């Protein structure tokens, strides 16, 4: 195995949740009186913590309206769309393969809230797959590297023994700030050319390629 610790982003990397995020934010924006949001603009902020995402999407928004937008987004994401979200094909098998290695550690670093990540852990019965996780509301949002620093300390892993895997420049720049190896995946939200600027050690164009590469 190339790394003792593999740290995964969630939305757009493991789970196919991009369209729900986009539609939920668009509905929330209309209900909060901010107006229509372009899908491309929303896709661009996936991976950031929700307050940071709203500040980027809505420059100059006042605190009251930002809180209303946040609340309506949470409603639509959780209750407005009751269809199940699924892992990208091959993700479950790939993670199971990694979990089969006795000394392998797996973690999640996500822009989700703790409440949101724990909910999807329960719904997908995947919480037990990971040794640790960090969310944007309990530390610093990406691309600040604090969540990675905390995961390294918690799991007693050196930075050279870990890799960050994600679909956005926020994931990759977070790892780059620590000198941590990083892997880009192209099935998420940011284009390959944008990801390449962060100098990933590998770019995976398909889920099986990612897990094959991680196995060395």
From TrEMBL:
It comes from the Bacteria. One of its GO terms (molecular function) is hydrolase activity. Gene3D superfamilies: HAD superfamily/HAD-like, Putative phosphatase, domain 2. It holds the Pfam family HAD_2. InterPro entries: HAD-like_hydrolase_sf, HAD-like_sf, HAD-SF_hydro_IA, HAD_2, HAD_sf, PGP-like_dom2. Keywords: Hydrolase. This is HAD-IA family hydrolase. It comes from Halomonas rhizosphaerae.
